[in-house]
Amino acid sequence: MITQLPADSEELVALGAFAGMQVLTVCLSVVIANAYRERALLVHGATVAIGVLALQTLVGGHAFLAEAALLLLLAVDGMQLRELVNHAGALRAPRRGLVGISLGLLPVLALACAIFEWHLLLAGVAAWFAVTAVVMLRAWPQSQPWARWLVAGQLSLAIAVAWLGWRSLDPQPDPPLPLAALLSVWAVCVFLGTAWRNRIFAETRVRIDARNTIDPLTGLAMPMIFYERVAGVRNLMRRYGHPSVMMLVHVENLDRLAREFGPETAESALAVAAQRVRETLRDGDVAARLSHSRIGVLAEGMSLPEGAANIASRILVAGLREPLPEAPTEFLHFRIVMATVPVNETAPKALLQRMATRMDGHLSEPSERRILSLSASDLED
Question: Where is the GGDEF domain (predicted)?
Fold first, then answer.
């Protein structure tokens, strides 16, 4: 089979447009893959680049090299498909078949086409399409809605390669325009499907990370994040000597609100308390929900008197600033135990437990004192 450029200028312009579309898809795939660390898009960019190379070799009259390039395209596309459907269950055997064809059969057929000039494109696309169809049928229920674009792209690729394989048996010249059009449809459809799938999975990962790091009721950090920040503050204290303050904030009237107005009002009050505590903090400070009625606060770069004047007192004022939305006659009452973060290796959880013990003793005393400052010796065993 001999291929030549179209004699019609309009067909030549269309051929250039389709080739440019594929090159643009390569550029977008590489840029987005590097920006969002999406490996599947990077593989798709490499696959489309092989398609552009196959089209160029076909235009240049190297039909067997074009067939070899398309067989390699199918091989890389098979590995990308395996990456895209790795979330689906019951696909172990089909995925193994897809890997075997992509890494074994198709490269061997491509080598035979390039060296011995055998027409093996139809055999390669038949084997590739058989396994791909099985994989897509099993992955279809768990891959909505992005799989629709992927199926459309794979069908376009199968038709393009099968068309060229069939026409390769005819010694008459064939214009490369149909192949370029079908490859462009495949490149765009698979790009859209892959990008859509990656965005869905990225949002899922963000939600999982948020669930592990953010308390769903209050929006504050989880205790593990608080402990990690305390450990990081210690390193800065040892290096630069800047003190930091750790506070244990107790919402005093939650139990009474639950008895008088119900548990829903108490939960709403806890969310309001968390919001008001968060509003008093500076950028870089962290607050975490430690228990039902207690919130941990870490104020970096502050001494104990500064923390009492700038953070703790503002938290007390924030509770009394305005009544609760669910209980217009009630305000939030806080009690705070605070201490400078020690530089020793005592675990942050153990420090908070000692502060909680002092808080329990402070609550049992009939005192109007709202802020209790602890020295380093008070936190020692």
Answer: 242-376
Cα pseudo-dihedral 61, 62, 64, 70, rounded to 10: -100
CA 171 to chain CA centroid, Å, is 51
Alpha-carbon distance of 29 to 208, in angstroms, equals: 26
CA–CA distance, 105 with 103 (Å, rounded to integer):
7
Which architecture characterizes domain 223-379 according to CATH? 2-Layer Sandwich (3.30)
Taking the complete model, does pTM exceed 0.70, yes or no? Answer: no
Sheet order of strands, 334-340 included:
286-289, 294-299, 245-251, 334-340, 371-374
- Per DSSP, the three-state class of 336 is strand
Judged on CB neighbours under 10 Å (0-12, 13-18, 19+), 111 is middle
Q: Which residues contact 333 (CB under 8 A, 6 or more apart)?
A: 251, 252, 253, 319, 320
- Tokens (6 digits) for 60: 């240049």
Give the helix, strand, coil percentages of the chain, each rounded to 5: 65, 10, 25
Q: Is 253 exposed, middle or buried (0-12, 13-18, 19+ CB in 10 A)?
A: buried
Q: Tell me the backbone φ, ψ of residue 174, rounded to 5 degrees.
A: -125, 130
Mean confidence (pLDDT) of the chain:
86
74, 98 Cβ separation under 8 angstroms: no
pLDDT of residue 45: 92
Task: Write the pLDDT tens digit of every residue in 121-138.
Answer: 999 999 999 989 988 888
Mean pLDDT for 130-158 is 89
Helix (DSSP H) and strand (DSSP E) numbers for the chain: 14, 5
Reported as a single tens digit per residue, the pLDDT across 267-290 is: 899 999 999 999 998 888 899 999
The half-sphere exposure of 239 on its side-chain side, counting CA atoms within 13 A, is 7
